[in-house]
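seq as requested:
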Amino acid sequence: MNKWERMSQDSSFRQAYEAREKVLMDEAAKFAYAEQKGIEKGIEKGIEQGKIQLIRGMHKNGMPIEDIAKFTSLNIEEIRNILQA
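struct tokens:
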């Protein structure tokens, strides 16, 4: 019987090994979750920045604020805040 077989028959060793494997799997799941949340946040931020650029471009090309509000589904005050920022 080799060393690994003897160790795998030891219940305390096996429990410690399984506990360590669970910790590693839990950590991997946490990192995957955090990565996914980061991606989602980045996408949201990108969409928001795109909307701001669109609003500024529309305004720069002479579109009235009221029309910009209709096209972007934002209210006039939000449009003004974006243009003043």
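Helices lie at 3-9, 11-60, 65-72, 76-84.
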